[in-house]
Design brief:
The chain has 8 helices and 21 strands. By secondary structure, the protein is an alpha+beta fold. Bound molecules: flavin-adenine dinucleotide.
């Protein structure tokens, strides 16, 4: 038997920050993750945008989350020697006169994060647009493409990684903690993203997973210092690659790339971008979103051996570092978890789940 403090299931952005925080808190752990190049964190653009939706309202807790994310990515990036997060403000082309009016109205109500640049002709050489653009700043791009593999390599080099699918039927709860195969631990922490829909301990939580797709395009002509948006976002990746997406589908048959998304998105991009580009990839994944749009953080209300960090929806890059801190502080120092995020608010639903297992 290997005896450790924690088993962590899943190495997306949630599991990564949990593992990193456990390492910093000198807690021993084993990470179990099935390699999946199409998990949510590996398909995401990595954008942190402080405003959202057609009404351009500020996202939940954004001032606190931005401040926290800046520090958390800087620290993790330094440890892994990766440039983890860079500022890339968002240039948002208005797709209609109504959206232009909505932006101006919002700017008059609350100008935080929004501006209406005087030079509305600036991007005429690169893009076709009819109704001007606004700028959202600061926005950030998280370099998930380098961060996640770098952290995985660190966990692997420390002999803490098991690359396989976690088999729920082999998990035993004991008075002291859990056992799984030949591992004994104080607690198990599930960071399994949309995989939680198959997790017997948490599948009854009110998840509202939705599917998102993106194209990866190659262009030598597009600016790389900003994220551009016109219905779709165009976010610079490494070199001359750009991420173009995304869709939000609540009624989906599978989590695979679809021909209809590709057709629609290619048509939109060719109408919008003036220079030639090549499509190099097409990705799809499920966002682990929740009905209340609040994450699931903390200890299972009926099984103190089991914990969760999940439900990040479309905002994993800003929410995960903050709530991974709360979760690990809770586990190690018994610090409180924000009530709105604490999974114990689902005591009744999770009680039902436990009884039917
Ligand atoms: C198209 C798209 C674009 C997005 N863009 C952004 C964006 O720009 N900014 C942003 O903040 N968020 C974005 N998101 C949302 C973001 O991706 C998620 O919020 C975040 O990645 C969720 O992270 P997670 O760690 O909870 O889950 P995941 O990233 O899904 O990680 C879960 C991990 O657990 C593993 N796993 C699951 N079940 C098991 C099992 N039984 N055994 C072993 N391993 C298991 C999986 O293989 C995976 O590695 C986007 C999502 C999509 C789909």
């Amino acid at each position: 038997m290997t005896t450790i403090d924690y088993v962590v299931v899943g190495q997306g952005v949630c599991g990564s920050f949990v593992a990193w925080n456990l390492e910093k808190a000198n807690q021993s752990f084993i990470m179990i993750d099935k390699p999946d190049p199409l998990s949510s964190s590996r398909v995401a653009a990595g954008i942190i945008n402080p405003v959202t939706g057609r009404r351009i309202v500020q996202t939940w807790m954004i001032d606190t989350l931005l401040d926290h994310a800046g520090k958390a990515y800087a620290q993790l990036g330094e440890a892994l020697d990766v440039e983890a997060m860079t500022q890339k403000n968002s240039v948002s082309f208005f797709p209609s006169p109504q959206m232009l009016q909505a932006f101006i109205g919002r700017l008059e109500e609350d100008a935080a994060y929004l501006s209406f640049p005087a030079d509305q002709e600036k991007y005429r050489n690169q893009f076709r647009y009819d109704f001007g653009y606004g700028e959202i700043s600061p926005c950030y791009a998280v370099n998930l493409a380098e961060l996640l593999p770098a952290l995985r390599a660190r966990i692997k080099n420390n002999n803490r990684l098991i690359e396989e699918t976690f088999d729920h039927s082999l998990l035993q709860l004991t008075d002291e903690g859990i056992t799984y195969k030949d591992i004994r631990a104080k607690k198990i922490i599930f960071c399994d993203g949309a995989g939680a829909m198959h997790n017997p301990w948490f599948r009854n939580l009110p998840f509202a997973c939705n599917k998102g797709e993106a194209l990866i395009i190659k262009s030598d002509h597009l600016p790389t210092d900003k994220v551009f948006k016109k219905s779709l976002s165009l976010a610079p990746l490494a070199g001359n690659l750009f991420w173009a997406g995304s869709s939000y589908e609540w009624d989906f048959q599978d989590d695979k790339p679809s021909a209809i998304f590709r057709q629609k998105t290619e048509k939109h991009l060719r109408e919008w971008i003036k220079s030639p580009f090549e499509i190099t990839d097409h990705l799809a994944s499920l966002r682990p979103a929740t009905v209340e749009r609040k994450p699931f953080v903390g200890i299972h209300p009926h099984h103190p051996q089991i914990a969760i960090l999940n439900g990040m929806g479309a905002k994993g890059c800003s929410l995960a570092p903050y709530f991974a801190d709360q979760l690990v502080d809770h586990l190690v120092k018994n610090a409180p978890i924000m009530e709105e995020a604490d999974v114990s608010r689902f005591r009744r639903i999770l009680g039902k789940d436990a009884r039917t297992m």
